[in-house]
Structure formats: C-alpha cells, structure tokens
Design goal:
Strand content: under 5%
Number of domains: 2
Radius of gyration: 31 Å
Helix content: 55-70%
Structural class: mainly alpha
CATH class of the largest domain: Mainly Alpha
Order of helices and strands: HHHHHHHHHHHHHHHHHHHHHH
CATH superfamily of the largest domain: Hypothetical protein af1432
CATH architecture of the largest domain: Orthogonal Bundle
Largest sheet: none
Number of helices: 22
C-alpha cells in the first residue's frame, strides 16, 4: 500500500473493515447459513474471475444476493476477488479492495431483496430483484467514486457523476439471469439447473470477446499501415485519418451506417497505402515531377489494392483504394472509369481526399479556407467529383466543424521558401485567389492526394 496516498490507504482500510463487520454474523454459531450454497456459488464465481471470458461474474453475485442471507451473500465474491488476476500494482491491495466492495454491495443487495415486498418466485420476485440490482450497482459506483477521490485526487462531483448512470446498465442486463438462477435453485430441478443458466451467457461472452479481439486486430492492422505511410510521406502526416473522418461525414449524410460506415472509414484511412510502394525521393520531391515520376505516382492505387487484397474485413474498401483517383469524365486513373462505373466508396473518398488536401498546407502551397475548398469542389462536381458526394459533404459541414491540422514548423518554413512572395499563392500577395485549382494542374496527378 506504499504507492497509494495516505487518504486512499485509509479509505480502503475502512471499506475492508466495514465489509468484515457486515460478514461477521455469518460465521457466528447458529447463524443458519447454507454453507453448501455459499461454497458452490463462490467456486463458480472464482472460476468466472480467473477466466473472465468463461462467463460474466455479475449474475452469480446477484444470484447469491437473491438466495442467501445478507451476511453470507457478500462472501460469494471473496474467493474470486482474492484469487483474481492482478495486472495493476499493488496487486493484493486491489484484491482486498474488490473483495470489500463485493461484500458490501452483495450484502446490501441481499438486504434490499429481503425487505422489498414481493414473492420469491417468478414473476413476483421481479420488483425485489430490480431494487436489489440497482442497490448493488449504486454501492459499487459509490465506492469506486470514493477511490477516485482519495487515490487520484479527483473532485467528488466529477468522480461520482460520471460513474452512476453507466453503473446501472450491467445489473439491469444481468439481473434477470441472476434471478432465473435463484428461481431454478429452489425449484425441483435444483442447483444444477440453476448453473446451466450460465451456459448461454458463457457462449455469448465468448462470442463478444472474440468480436472485440477481432475488431482490435483490425484497428491495429489499419494503424500499422497508416503509420507506415505517414513515416514515408511526412508532409501529409495525419492526412489519412482526416480523409477517413471526412468520408464518414459524407457517408452519414448518405444514410450509411453499421458495417458499411466502418468499411468506408477504413477506405478513407487506407486510400493512400499504395504510397508505400512509391520511392521516397519521389514522394518528398519539392519541385515539379517528371513524366516518369508521374507514371510511378499513378501506380499507387494499384499498389495499395494489391497490398490489402488478402485483408478480408476491408471488403468494399478495397475498391475505394483502387479507384479513388478516377474521375466522372473518364480522365482519372488507373483505368479511366466514368460515372457510375466508379464504385460508390471511391466517389466518396475522392471528395474527402480532395477536400482535406485543399484545406491542408503542403510543401508546394498553403492551405485554403474551408469555404473556398467547398466552392472548388462544387465547381468540379459533375466532371471530376460526384455531385451527390460534394453536396453531402457541404451539408455535413453545416453542423460539424472541420479543424484542419496546423502544419509543422519545418513545413511552414519550406512553403515560404517554395512559394515566392510575388506568387498568387503566397499569403501576403494582394491578389491571392480564394480557391485552389483541383481540376487543373497539380503537383501530383489526379488532383490532391
């Protein structure tokens, strides 16, 4: 406990002492505690704590509150809390803390369950079970808030206000399973049938855990690819994430949601992953590109498509990576597709890519204001860009603020060197135009990107 502030040590000691006092009546002679039920539930709870993906522990704790006297209900969680996996230090202090929490919350929940009017069978026990579940959640949240105040020095108001609403969700979700366990326990089917309630919960927990892990792996894959692109082309760092964000704004205006929205976000983030196959000297070149260098640049959509071909979760995003430099009039690359031949995702990403490129500072020109960028997109709608996508972005930006990333100091200095003071693109030029050219000549082919 040496790493904790004195206030936190005192707080934890008080919670553990209060838990011991609450559980003390259970060990007195003649208390009439059904120790068989306590030990069985405690063993199940310990397994759930040690193997969290096996089954959620909350239904077992609530079943103990519904089945046992208040002094014994909290004891169900003690073995699991003391033997639980400790990842943060000090481990034993945290284990004692959780054990004390569970004893107090379980004991008070059992007390409420026994006091609230209602039967002990279904559906008469719904009201007492609901009240007990809410009390369990509020006690856990209140004790956690106290720990935040004493251990981290947070203001009491923020420590408790942020935890109480979310704390009510788990008991409301898992409370019916705990009540079903308690009802079956006292039925003709007995404890074995009660424990079978955990089987579907275990399966659903395992499936959800697999989904979370798979999603985390997807996110890690995308982050690794984006970081590699950012390291190679340092002057467009952050561009990929912003294109992903702008693509989502457009997609939501078009009514996309769920998996398609997530796939489109990936498409925006990974649209330039093919730059990993382009020589660094070409990407970082400050002057005009030679025809040969332009041809090399024009290969990056195909490079990107080949890189992500085997990543199954990208789905429609692969088409956007390949075709985001196509233009509606057929003058784009790599295949010169026209109109509706261009996949929808690619048409979205093309607008998001051009918008962020125009509103970001590059080594060869300064950033344009958001209204000027939208005006230029509208001018090029129908020839270079899909008008629906341009209109969707314009609508989205009326209720979502866009914050272009400030250029790093070395890039700002390079722009000052590359843009002469008498050039219209220089910020001090009296005749500086209000909008950039997207459809006209660009440093890289196909417009911004």
């Amino acid at each position: 406990m040496g790493a904790l502030p004195a206030a936190a040590r005192g707080y934890i000691a008080c919670v553990v002492l209060a838990a011991a006092v609450c559980a003390l009546p259970a060990v007195r002679p003649g208390a009439g505690i059904p120790w068989g039920a306590v030990l069985l539930l405690a063993a199940v709870c310990a397994v759930c704590e040690r193997v969290p993906r096996c089954a959620p522990v909350l239904p077992v704790l609530l079943a103990g509150a519904f089945l046992l006297p208040p002094a014994a209900a909290g004891l169900v969680a003690v073995p699991g809390a003391l033997a639980g996996r400790g990842e943060l230090r000090p481990v034993w202090v945290r284990r004692l803390w959780h054990a004390g929490q569970y004893v107090l919350a379980g004991g008070l929940a059992a007390e409420v369950f026994s006091c609230v009017p209602g039967g002990r069978g279904f559906p008469y026990a719904l009201l007492p079970a609901l009240a007990a579940g809410i009390v369990f959640a509020l006690v856990m949240a209140a004790l956690d808030g106290g720990a935040l105040v004493t251990a981290e020095g947070r203001p009491p108001r923020s420590a408790w206000r942020g935890r109480l609403p979310g704390a009510l969700v788990p008991p409301l979700v898992h409370g019916p399973a705990g009540l079903m366990m308690a009802v079956l326990w006292h039925s003709v089917y007995g404890p074995v049938a009660a424990l079978l309630v955990l089987l579907p919960l275990s399966i659903s927990s395992w499936v959800l855990d697999r989904c979370r892990r798979e999603r985390a792996a997807h996110q890690a894959t995308v982050r690794a690819l984006v970081q590699a692109v950012d390291l190679k082309d340092r002057y467009t760092r952050g561009h990929s994430e912003r294109v992903g964000r702008a693509s989502v704004l457009i997609a939501r205006e078009l009514g996309m949601s769920g998996e398609r929205l997530e796939a489109l976000r990936f498409a925006g983030i990974l649209h330039d992953v093919g730059k990993l196959g382009v020589p660094t000297r070409v990407l970082r070149k400050d002057g005009p590109l030679t025809p040969e260098e332009r041809r090399v640049i024009e290969l990056h959509p195909e490079y990107g498509h080949e890189m992500v071909r085997g990543i199954g979760f990208l789905d429609e995003a692969r088409a956007a990576i390949l075709h985001h430099h196509e233009r509606l009039d057929g003058s784009g690359y790599p295949y010169g597709l026209t109109g509706r031949q261009i996949p929808e995702f690619a048409r979205v990403v093309a607008v998001a890519d051009a918008f962020d490129a125009m509103t970001s500072t590059r080594s060869y020109r300064r950033a344009r204001p958001v209204p000027a960028a939208l005006e230029e997109l509208d001018r090029c709608a129908g020839t270079q860009f899909d008008p629906r996508m341009v209109e969707a972005l314009s609508r989205a930006l009326t209720h979502h603020r866009w914050h272009p990333a400030p250029p790093p100091p070395e890039l700002a200095a390079q722009v000052s060197r590359n843009v002469p003071s008498d050039h219209p693109d220089h910020p001090e030029h009296p005749n500086r135009p209000d909008r950039p050219s997207v459809a006209g000549p660009a440093r890289h082919p196909g417009g911004p990107g």
